[in-house]
## 1
Amino acid sequence: MTGTRKMAHVALLVALAMAFHALEAALPLPGIVPGARLGLVNIVTLLALLLYGFRTAMFVTVVRSLLGSFFLGNFLGFGFYLSLAGAVFSTLAMTLALWGWRRGLFSLVAVSITGAVVHNTAQVAAASLLIGNLNLLRLYLPLLLVLAVPAGFITGLAVLYSYRVLARLIHNQPES
């Protein structure tokens, strides 16, 4: 694959991640725990990991967090730091979990659930540190973790099916 083609693919991943980021910010889930999201951006992060590896996935993660917060108006605000902490630690965790997937120890859905759980844990830990109240970890984190499992399951299924198609498309394209 040429550098230009990869750069175009990565730009598309960043754009898709930002679109999911904005969509989730605009459509809060009513009646559920405040701050709870479906984690659609996790789909893009995991696809970036599978298709291009850790460095590209972390690039997509950081750029999405920076640009997403800038365009949503919370750049360098409280929400930015929570988003960045969750995204970075989730990407690291899914990178480690992919090691087990490649050895047949567990599924891509399990990798996605791992990312969702670590994302919520990192966000609540960052919030606890920023506001100086460790009770969030004890009181709020369990609620988010209960929601992280089905959210990770759904995003994991999306990755499972889309990865097969995308990998075929990317690897079967003729070089220019």
## 2
Amino acid sequence: MTKITVGFAMCGSFCTFSDIIPQISLLLENDFDVVPIMSQTAYSLDTRFGKADDFIQEIEGICKRKIICTINEAEPIGPKALLDILVIAPCTGNTLGKLANGITDTSVTMAAKAHLRNGRPVLLGISTNDALGTCAKNIGQLFNYKNIYFIPMRQDNAQNKPNSVISDFSKTLSAINEALQGRQLQPVLL
């Protein structure tokens, strides 16, 4: 049996990286092949959550391959049908807006565009402080797009950040398995 190839794209919601990287390891432990992808922001910025070079070394060490981090590197994903599924986690509000409106100006949005041309699933793991605010319309649009699925999500901190939503990244593997069957893991709102 051929391994399922998962493109795992990370955007700049740095506070979630410590939850995301173990999901990449879990996929490898479950015999998936993982192609790491990072937005230029995620790939290049040091933040209070860690240094970019440390994250890069850790992810490339786990996956045993170089991270795709440019538009040029991401473009062949479609023509060469490199992936069975693309996971974008964390998926920021910025990336959600670009996906909803067909904007392709990062390695992650190019990976999505290239992958979707093959009619294959894209799984979004939302992490944004404005999901229930300015970003809500983009999420609503994406719910109606063919081959777009979501990792189940919930409000992050309803008292202090009432518009903030984060996916339950522990459900990534289950959501992948469902999306590969053309189904949304339910319930999508936790």
## 3
Amino acid sequence: MNRKEALDSIKANIENENLIKHMLATEAIMRALARRLGEDEEEWGLTGLLHDIDMELTEGDMNIHSKLGADLARDLGASEAMAHAILCHNDRHGISRETKLDKALFCADPLTGLITAAALVRPDKKLAGLEASSVIKKIKQKSFAAGVSREQISLCSEIGLEVGEFIELGLVAMQEIDAALGL
């Protein structure tokens, strides 16, 4: 599987443009994490890209979301490690996160929402001028982007990063693809 095949499959299964942008943002963060941690950038990026491929097919039913996604990823040629990370990024299944890939996807997933929300409250609604320090302040405000799990983001410590450096890495990764994200 290559990125084009993965993206084509996503576009065949997902209509919501914001969900696609979330998956692109997760891919960008996962690629940056792979570079930082000396992991396989292609594998990590594709895992981030594909992680929510089944969201519309499962109609957002969290009891089955990611089970179908892992199967779809396997059908596209994803490794078992990638499929496992996709499967266990949904806590509902109670499947333990064992590898760095599993843990990275789990904490990267909500970070995209926090960074996007921080950009959208800016007057220009752009990532370009957003600074990591602003996002770090926002994470401390529980009412800001209340649906974003701070606990999940903080699990970046399990892959050797402090929250501040994780936010900065994620922000820079998303800034690099700001045109694709419309931010």
